[in-house]
Every structure is written in C-alpha cells, then in structure tokens.
Amino acid sequence: MRIAGQKLTGKLFAIYATVILITIVMLLPFAWMLSASLKLSSEVFVFPIEWIPSKPQWQNYVDIWTKIPLALFIYNTSKLTIIVTLMQLFTSSFAAYAFAKLEFPYKNALFLGYIATIAMPWQVYMVPQFLLMREFGLNNTHLALICLQAFTAFGVFLMRQFYMSIPTELCEAARIDGMNEYQIWAKIMLPLSKPALSTLTIFTFVTTWNDFLGPMIYLTKTELKTIQIGLRMFISQYSAEYGLIMAASVVALIPVLIVFLSLQRFFVEGVASSGIKG
Amino acid sequence: MANSTVAASDTPVPARRRKVVSRRRRRVQDALVAYSFIAPNFLGFAVFTLGPILFAFVLAFMHWDGSNAITFAGLDNFWRLFEDKAFKDAFWNTIVYTVVSVPVTLACALGLAILLNQKILGRDFFRTAMFFPYVASLVAVAVVWNMIFNPEMGPVNMILYTLGLDPQNMPGWAADRHWAMVTVILFGVWKSMGYFMVIYLAGLQGINSELYEAADLDGANAWQKFLYVTVPQLGPTTFFVTVMLTIQSFKVFDQIYMITQGGPGTSTLVLVYHIYNEAFISWDLGYSSMIALVLFFLVLGVTVIQFRRQKED
C-alpha cells in the first residue's frame, strides 16, 4: 500500500497514528462545544458522550440572540476590529516606508524607541494608559480602544522588515521617473507588500477580535461591549444554561474561523517570516 | 558628504553658494517628507504608549487612588512588596507557570513541527488544525475547558473514573488548589503550541539538507541527526521561541481570569492579576504600578540573559 507516493512502512504508520491522535486531542474541545451547543442543558454532561445529539436543539441558536444583545456585541466588535485594522495597516506601512527607504535626522533614535517597546508587556503600562484615557474623557468609548490598538510598534517593525527586502533601486528608478515619495509608497511599495500586509491584517484582526482585558477595563456599559466581554457576561448570568453558552461560543468563533481559513496560507508564511526575522 | 564638498570646491563662488543653499533646503524638505510619513503612527504611539510607559515609572513612587490628590510616596510602595503576602504568592506562581509552561510548550511545538515537516497526506489540514486553538476566542474555549475539566460531571474525570481511578482521589482541576495551576498550564500549552510549531516549521525548512546527507554518510541514526544537526541548526529559532514564550508566560492573565479567577485561595494568582486587582478593584494606583515595574524588570532581565547566552553560543 502507498500513501502520498510513499510505501506504507511501520515508521510511516506510526507517524500517521501520532499525528491523527494529536489532531483529535487538539480539536476535541471544539467538537465538544459544537455538540453541546445542540443539546439541552440537562444533557450536556451525560456520559458516555453522545457526540451527535439525537434530538438537536436548534432552538439554542435562536434563543441566544434574544437572551443577550449578541447582534449588538458582534456589531461593536466588527466596527472596532475593522477600524483598528485599517488604521494599523495605514499608519504602520506609512511609517515603515520612511524607516526603510528614507534618510532623516534621528532615524535610528526613533526606531530604537519603537524596538524598545516591542518586548514591553502592555500590562506594565495599562494602568497609566487607562488614567490618561480617563483624563481625555475616553473611558466608556470605543475611541479609547481604537487609540490603544491602532499604533503598535509591532506593526511598524513588521512592515519595515519587509520593506528592507525590497530593492532600493526600485525607489530610485521611480524618483528619476518623477514620482514623489507618496506616490512611490502608494504605487510601488504597497502593491509589493501584500504578504506583509496580509500578515499584519490577520494579527491585528485576531488580537482585536479576541481582546479581553482591554474592553473589560474600558467598557462598562452593556451597549458598548464587545463579543468577548459580552460572552463573559452571558456566562456569569446564565451559568447553568450550558447549551446556550456553547451556542453563543460557537457564534463568537465563526468570524475568526472564516478570516483564518480564507487567509491561512498567508498566516503560516507570515508567522514564519515575522518569527525568523524578529 | 565627502563627495559633495569636493564637487563644490570646483565651482565658482556664487554658484556654489546657491547650490549649498538649495541643497540644504532640499535636505530639510526631504526630512519633512520623511517625518510626514512617520507622524501619523508616531504621534499615536508617543501619546498612548511611550507616555504611559514613562508615567508608570513615576506613578510607582506615588500614592494615588485616582480621585484625591496625588502624593509622593518615596519607596513606600517598594517596601510594601515585601510585606504583601499576595504579591509573594503572585510572584512565585508566575515563576512556576513560566518554568513549567515554557519548556513543555517548546518541546510540544518542536515535536509537532518535526512530525508535520514530513511528507504526509493532508499535511496542510493537520497544520491548520494545530494552529486553530491559537486564533480561537479565549472566552469561548476557556468555558469549554471548564466544562470538560469539571470535577464532578466533566468528561475528563468520567474517563478517569471508567479507567478505574478511585473517585476519592480524582483530580479537582480548577477547583482544587493543588491542581488549579496544572489546569491553567495545560490550557496554555494547548492554546499556544500551534503558533510556535509554525515558527519551528519555518526554522526546519531553513536547514540545509546537505547536512543530513553528510550525517547519513557518517552513519548517524535518526536520534543522532536530531541531536547533532537539527537542534544546533534550530538555535536561533529556539532562542526566539524561548524569549517569546517567556514574555508571554510572565504576562499571563486572561486564561486565569476565565478558568480559576486566581484561586482557589491564591493558588493561581499571578502578577498581572495582582496588578489588575490593586488598580481596578482597590484603586491603589501607585502600588499597582510598582508591581508592574517588577514585571517589567523580570521581562527585561530574562531577555538580557537570553541575549547574552545567544551571543556566547
């Protein structure tokens, strides 16, 4: 017998067995979540586990929208995520162009300022940052979370590393053709940097969508909450409604799943390249 | 620079002056263009990141509850660290979490990467599956974790029971002070190993295959090849992964908030949790910033040590 052009040996069999076993363990919590989301709360913990419910409770997926303002939470999170991602892409690639391709006074000092904060956990300065936002009257606004996430050192660093690998001769040729720097950025650098932009998009999307501590500190009004703290609120309010909690969790996972699956080719490459160059 | 002065000295005086002036204007103009590129990001970065970082260092030496007047505290907050039992617990729990989860995650990630670097059918699917927990919403997966590891009804203990484990000695997982840390660490390893696997995969693909051929000629077995080719060649990747994992472990919070709330007692209280409590529950902003400085120096120290070791190798 042959699999993928290789002879099925004992070694190959062992590899397949291990990989499949690990994959099952990795995905088991998701399978359990999906299965429990279609059960009555009283059936969720029945053992042995009935993986495919005999009487699927589709009603769970109807009820969650009225038990909590789930649609509003998703809207809030989408709004925040899209604005933050767009701002991050624009400001990072814009600044990165200057750091990679232009000469100006204090360039190294400024870049060092960015690098020095990459390793600094946000948790070190989250309290003074909160006080500052409060001073600006920004707590309980979405603007606070946008300001907090839209200007990261990581974004500038990632884009700059990518721009460094684009030959400078390209920019010089464009200058001779009479393009100014803004045109070079828009017409030459941006189209060439799709892999880096995709990586940054995915990282920003996933971090903003899944952020918990930020929204928990800044947003106390229900109508402003994001899906993560909304879900958390739901869990503490209806702690025994296991089926409903699981259904809401599945709904919270879907947007990330879609983005991840559609961009995963870039994701793997992007993580790898940002990791190695970092 | 040297070129421009040589060129300038050859030209007659008035023309040279005009050229110098226009060149200086050009340089100022170039710098302004460059700054205009940086400004949108840098202004936001300076106000919302650099400013608060500097403020954190000042705040650590102040007394402030956020509403009354701010007063100078000198080293009060620093000395308080030594009397605060919760801080001591949080500090050691953070160390334990890091010391256990970093090597375990690293080993799992490397093992997975080696497995999935082989030419096997459905490789992309397996890689995606391993990576998925990393991008999945933490709130959603943590609640599943709590249910699966529920000591009375959860499937994990049910399976242990059917395997014949004595119900009296069943692990209490998140509800048991001896098992709570294990539960949280297991969760952390499960969630992040796929991410580091991808980084290792990239590292593995960067190894020159001739090295393995040479090892084959020397009669090395698989284990020897792993030990004397793979591991040394992955040095830079392992360095990067270790630094990232260590920083990530030092700042662990979300999963602990979701799974154990720092308990039972203080058995899973970690530094960031303590910062959060002191700041947003007790409103002791100065003291919480002092704990944040401890976290900062911990991260800095580890990064510096690892950079040193990397240089020696």
Lay out the secondary structure.
The complex is a heterodimer of chains A (278) and B (313).
Chain A: E1 2-3, E2 6-7, H1 10-36, H2 59-67, H3 70-101, H4 107-118, H5 122-135, H6 142-149, H7 153-164, H8 168-176, H9 181-192, H10 194-210, H11 213-218, H12 227-237, H13 242-277
Antiparallel strand pairs in A: 1-2
Helix pairs in contact in A: 2-13, 3-6, 3-7, 3-10, 3-12, 4-7, 10-13, 12-13
Chain B: H1 2-9, H2 13-59, E1 62-63, E2 71-72, H3 76-83, H4 85-115, H5 123-135, H6 138-148, H7 155-162, H8 180-205, H9 209-217, H10 222-233, H11 235-250, H12 254-259, H13 271-281, H14 285-312
Antiparallel strand pairs in B: 1-2
Helix pairs in contact in B: 3-14, 4-8, 4-11, 4-13, 5-8, 8-11, 11-14, 13-14
Folded structure, characterized:
The complex is a heterodimer of chains A (278) and B (313). Chain A is mainly alpha-helical and 278 residues long. Chain A has 2 domains: 2-61, no CATH class; 62-277, MetI-like fold (Orthogonal Bundle). Helices cover 74% and strands 1% of the residues of chain A. The model of chain A has no long low-confidence stretch (mean pLDDT 86). Chain B has 2 domains: 2-59; 76-312, MetI-like fold (Orthogonal Bundle). Chain B has helices spanning 2-9, 13-59, 76-83, 85-115, 123-135, 138-148, 155-162, 180-205, 209-217, 222-233, 235-250, 254-259, 271-281, 285-312, and strands at residues 62-63, 71-72. Chain B has a two-stranded antiparallel ribbon. In chain B, a hairpin with a 7-residue loop joins strand 1 (62-63) and strand 2. Chains A and B meet through helix 1, helix 3, helix 4, helix 5 and helix 7 of A and helix 2, helix 5, helix 6, helix 8 and helix 11 of B.
